[in-house]
């Protein structure tokens, strides 16, 4: 490097040139690989201001080195850990739509807890809980490892949706206890009724939601207003939320309380999956 180049390279904080460092080189930010400092002290002083730009620069470099975005179908996992085949073809259209829109994998009811954990740790884009057996107090010991893995998965950025027949076959005590003990959430089971629920959130993951969700659904009480996707119209009095979208760690938890697999619920569930 020429003496002229050394003179031009300066500390971001005190403007001391590299030429004035008696043969030493300026320190370089390890993230953006661009900003220079004459000392650790100057780097520490600048970090509160620099970190916003630095993070953006590091992200740009990461995205560039990763090449073009991944165009492969999003992976969605369905957990049906107890046999619900007695429902017949009630969910045939739902499963078909999921297969068409994603890499859709159903974990069969005969799967061991270890096999379920292995499937979760493949880091799918979203997981749909089809039925509530992992919420049962009587079966909690069998599902303990599964639940711990689900919590870690969501905290790390995954999406878990309590949908399909989950709300229809869980008791209020089991649901309330599960949400509190496993997820530390204040939600409790609320009303169970069919009404035309009003939309409070226009879209999820960039996917527009139906303006009205006409469904027989289990609502949740204690949900923060910003997490309510649909709500009970005022003329029906106070109520809970039949559809919820909650930020949890770096991930998301969805609740779709419809028990009859209405068309609107399929649209909402797919939106939560990002498909």
UniProtKB/TrEMBL annotation:
Report the coiled-coil segments. Answer: none
Sorted UniProt keywords? Metal-binding, Zinc, Zinc-finger
Question: What are the protein's GO molecular function terms?
Answer: zinc ion binding
Stretches assigned to the MYND-type domain: 11-54
Q: Which domain of life is it from?
A: Eukaryota
Under the heading SUPFAM superfamilies, the entry gives:
HIT/MYND zinc finger-like (SSF144232)
Pfam families the UniProt entry points to:
zf-MYND
- Report the protein name in the record: MYND-type domain-containing protein
- Which species is this UniProt entry from? Cyphellophora attinorum
Species lineage, top-down? Answer: Eukaryota, Fungi, Dikarya, Ascomycota, Pezizomycotina
């Amino acid at each position: 490097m020429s003496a002229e180049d050394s003179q031009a390279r300066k500390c971001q904080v005190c403007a001391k040139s590299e030429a004035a460092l008696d043969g030493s080189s300026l320190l370089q930010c390890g993230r953006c690989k661009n900003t220079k400092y004459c000392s650790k002290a100057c780097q520490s002083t600048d970090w509160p201001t620099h970190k916003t730009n630095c993070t953006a620069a590091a992200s740009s470099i990461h995205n560039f080195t990763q090449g073009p975005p991944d165009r492969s179908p999003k992976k969605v996992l369905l957990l049906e850990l107890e046999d619900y085949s007695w429902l017949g073809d009630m969910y045939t259209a739902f499963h078909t739509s999921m297969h068409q829109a994603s890499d859709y994998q159903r974990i069969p009811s005969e799967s061991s807890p270890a096999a379920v954990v292995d499937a979760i740790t493949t880091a799918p884009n979203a997981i749909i809980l089809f039925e509530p057996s992992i919420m049962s107090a009587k079966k909690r010991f069998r599902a303990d490892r599964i639940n711990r893995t689900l919590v870690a998965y969501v905290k790390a950025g995954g999406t878990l949706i309590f949908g399909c027949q989950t709300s229809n076959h869980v008791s209020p005590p089991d649901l309330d206890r599960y949400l509190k003990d496993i997820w530390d959430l204040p939600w409790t089971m609320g009303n169970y009724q069919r009404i035309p629920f009003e939309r409070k959130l226009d879209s999820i993951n960039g996917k527009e939601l139906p303006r009205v969700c006409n469904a027989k659904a289990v609502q949740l009480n204690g949900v923060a207003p910003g997490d309510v996707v649909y709500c009970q119209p005022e003329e029906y009095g106070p109520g809970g939320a039949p559809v919820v979208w909650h930020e949890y760690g770096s991930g998301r938890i969805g609740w779709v309380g419809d028990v009859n697999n209405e068309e609107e619920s399929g649209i909402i569930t797919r939106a939560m999956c990002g498909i």
